[in-house]
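Attaching the record inline, Q. Sequence:
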Amino acid sequence: MIEMRVAGIAIDAVNRSPIVLLKDGQERRALPIYINQDQAKAIIGALENQKPPRPLTHDLIANILEAWGMTLERIVINAIQDGTFYALLTVSQGEVKKEIDARPSDAIAIALRTNSPIWVMEEVVADASIPVDRDADEAEQQAFREFLANLRPEDLIKGGGFMGES
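Structure, as predicted:
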């Protein structure tokens, strides 16, 4: 899994739909997830630490978790199927942990309100992310190609086994 953070909300230039943009810690990959206007408002409100006069749905959920001594340990965007993302909330209370299915936009809005980490499965990142820093990606690929070009068979043998095997 890859930990990501909300980089912000963007607007698709073609269809004017809001997109929540997640970025990895090195800001090398971005994961765009299309959301609707209400979901965008909920995420922006959390990013800007806006406190509504009365709790909205995501605030209510965060309040319920707190009132019952529950912790949102993390959210995980765990799948993408036919262009639809899926997420899980990992909630704990003492020794008991539960995973709860959620829309990624709701999971993100709640995670922001509870300061919980946002994780994305590697296969989702591989399938749906876009490169942010193409130069760094190319430099890393070139360094790996050079490593392979200079690799000798004896470099692979350590301790009498193959690649550290005993």
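The first helix runs from residue 37 to 47. The first strand starts at residue 2 and ends at 11.

More tomorrow.
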